[in-house]
Structure formats: structure tokens, C-alpha cells
Design goal:
The protein is α+β, with helices and mostly antiparallel strands. Helices cover about 45% and strands about 20% of the residues. It contains two helices and five strands, in the order αβββββα. A five-stranded antiparallel beta sheet has the order 3-2-1-4-5, covered by helices on one side.
Length: about 160
């Protein structure tokens, strides 16, 4: 019974690893697709202006810019693709004319999400893959409940 229990634990571990890998991969792909869709929507109605960088934090970078109607905007979600910005800096931004709080640094786009998302997925599978290979090599089949010798009635 202990051998059957160990086999079941290995199978659950393998299924858990594959599930985690698939979920993170799906989330990374969704992130990239979302970034491309947001950029497509923004570029169809974009307006360029100069903005002042107010603050740079880990989770967002706040900027202030003025729209043609004279209103000052400080988007609460920050600016898209803020890498390399510093507080006090003036930067060219593009914002959505219909939704002025949707703003990104001019000239930057969704392609910048490919590297971090791709790297995350690559390293995740570089860890999961060898672990699954090792489990399979050491203990045999991982995803079947039955042992291979009990599958075929012709061999009995």
C-alpha cells in the first residue's frame, strides 16, 4: 500500500507542476494580449503632449499633463511603460482623447511586455521541465493511475 501511496503523491505533484506552469503561461499570454489591445485602442485616438513625472514608485509612475481644454490630468493608475523615468523629468506622452487617464510614454508600446512575460515563462518551464523529466525517469509513468503491466489483458 505504501508504494501505491507514493505513486499517487508523485502523480499529484506532477499534475500540480503542470497546472502551475500552464496557469502562469496563460496569465503571461493574457498580459501580452491585453497590452496589445490597450495600445491598439490608445493609438486610434492618441494625442501627444509633454508631461512632468511627479513620482516614481515600484507599482506606478505618476505624471501630470494638460489637455487642450486646459484641464490638468494625473492618471491614478500612472503611465504605461515608465522604465527609466525619474521624478521631475519632462517626458513626451500619448493619451487617449476619449479617456485622458489612459496614458503611456510616447514611442513605447506593448512589445515591451514580451521580454518580461517571455522570460518568466521560459524560466518557469526551465524549472518544471527537468523536475518532471527527473520524476518520469526515476519513477516511470507519472500521469497514469494503472501500472503498464495491468493495462493489457492480452499479456495475462
Amino acid at each position: 500500500m505504501a508504494v501505491g501511496r507514493a505513486s499517487q503523491v508523485r502523480r499529484v505533484a506532477a499534475i500540480t507542476l503542470v497546472s502551475i506552469g500552464a496557469t502562469v503561461t496563460l496569465l503571461a499570454v493574457t498580459l501580452v494580449i491585453g497590452a496589445y489591445r490597450e495600445d491598439a485602442g490608445l493609438s486610434s485616438r492618441s494625442v501627444r503632449t509633454t508631461a512632468e513625472v511627479l513620482s516614481v514608485a515600484f507599482d506606478r509612475t505618476l505624471v501630470r499633463y494638460q489637455t487642450p481644454d486646459g484641464a490638468d490630468h494625473i492618471p491614478p493608475d500612472g503611465v504605461g511603460y515608465p522604465a527609466g523615468l525619474q521624478a521631475g523629468q519632462l517626458v513626451e506622452v500619448e493619451y487617449d482623447a476619449a479617456k485622458p487617464d489612459l496614458v503611456k510614454v510616447a514611442g513605447r508600446g506593448a512589445y515591451l511586455t514580451l521580454m518580461p512575460a517571455g522570460t518568466l515563462v521560459l524560466f518557469l518551464w526551465l524549472v518544471i521541465g527537468p523536475v518532471l523529466w527527473w520524476l518520469r525517469r526515476r519513477y516511470g509513468t507519472l500521469f497514469r493511475r494503472d501500472h503498464p503491466q495491468s493495462l493489457s489483458p492480452a499479456t495475462s
